Amino acid sequence: MKSSIRIGAAQGFWGDRVDAPVDMARYGRCDYIMLDYLAEVTMSILQRQKLKDPNAGYAKDFPAVVGRLAPYLKKGLKVITNAGGVNPAACARAVLDKLGRAGMHDVKVGVVTGDDILSQLDVLMCAGDSLKNMETGEALSSVRNRVVSANVYFGAAPLVEALGQGAQIVIAGRCTDTALTLAPMVHEFGWSMENYDLVAAGTVAGHIMECGAQASGGNFSAAWEDVPDMAHIGYPVAEAFPDGTFTITKPEALGGMVNQAVVKEQILYELGDPRRYISPDCVIDFTTIRLEDDGPDRVRVRGVHGAPPTDTYKVSLAYQDGWKTAGTLVYTWPRALSKARKAREILETRIADLGLRIDEILFECLGVNACHGALAPVPDEDQINEVVFRVAVRSSSRSNVEAFGYELAPLILDGPPSVTGFAGGRPKPQEIIAYWPALLRKTAVGARVEILEA
Amino acid sequence: MKRVATRQVALLEIAHARSGDKGDTVNVGVIARRPEVYPFLKKVLTPERVKEHFAGLCKGRVERFEMDNIGALNFLLHGSLGGGGTKSLQTDAQGKTFAAAMLRMMVDAPEEIL
Question: Rounded CA gap, A41 and A266, in Å?
Fold first, then answer.
């Protein structure tokens, strides 16, 4: 057994810095790199792509990342990711193709499937699984015919199984973000999944790592001015030990910083009740986490307590929920705010005249109070140099949203003066894919693990 | 009774914060910049005070959780994102800037912790 392992985070969402994985491989001295590509909304986008093309539906960036990581894979680097989206098998085929082209025919690729329950929804509902909305209690039947994707959040177990079968690259679909960091620890240190303190510790490490550089100086509210070289920010590394303690650090050669304040902010990110952080692998008490300084850019984490998991998986469903669009215009001094108000009045009159069916409309003045609302003191209008007037609408009718999109541009010639910044054409209707969180008995679904070679 | 000298400061001076979303709920974690600040935060940042602060932005109830281990309070602001995530029309559809909005709060802090 190794006395410690280093796991590097190199993607906090699909859209994060593309060279982060290679930088991590080059400077991070890592045994493992974990890449998180999936947000809740991503699954539905991928499901739509797969409908159009049976070979799509995964994070398209990932095979290219594997190609760039080839020299490091040759030296034994392992990669764990949820890039599989709703089509891990197709993702694996693309990865094997890349590996083959790099002359690497002996790399084992583990594929985890079984999380996609879209085709089983009716069977499950017939069997008595209501899949009711966790937040509202509403029955799934009310939106059943509009469901676009449905995925169970697996924990670390299937990832650990893939590693145990010798996979050097593990591609999953929807598993928890935290499992990507926990799995290597369980595999390397031979932890029992029933040792809940250890499993909880690995999950806390995963929680700190899952948003990439947010744990190494990115989006840092306490002292962002002090963060070195954000242009080359080093993503976080977890140096993990068999006893469940770990140190959060970063590649020394890169920018960013790790200290207790940075780690505390990320511990709190998207946190609910800290005493009951529920993962499929355990329930964690975040109030037991202890932080200690451990040298420059190093924070040691210990003391984590966990309890047995619940008997349900969280399910992430997405369903079609209408249409929206937004557009902007820029008004300048003098009386920029009054001009924006006039534009609002005109639009409201036009919508009424046309009888558009708009379920919700929102006007914002960016640069004044769009984000902080009534909390933001509005300066004297004479002090306002310019304002971005933004209007957004939502409707169950696509054509009504589209018709609204025709009303904004005419304001340039028809409305108040000193107006500019209308680019990109008429605002087009965007489909709203809403999120439906639910629970499902763990016994109702199972993960499948397959090992492939080029 | 000894009178404690106080000074009015923005929360920003004594705390830092991070916020994120879960459905239609925004969580705002508020962290004491120094250990001696934390007891004061616990005293002053009641759920009622936070709800009042976010009037207009938070339409639901406010829950508070204490994390003595890291000198932080976690707030859940329900009904803050116009239906949540993808449905929201707001520029800040994920409540990312609620942390900064929290730090606008003016508080009467004892001089000894400043």
Answer: 21
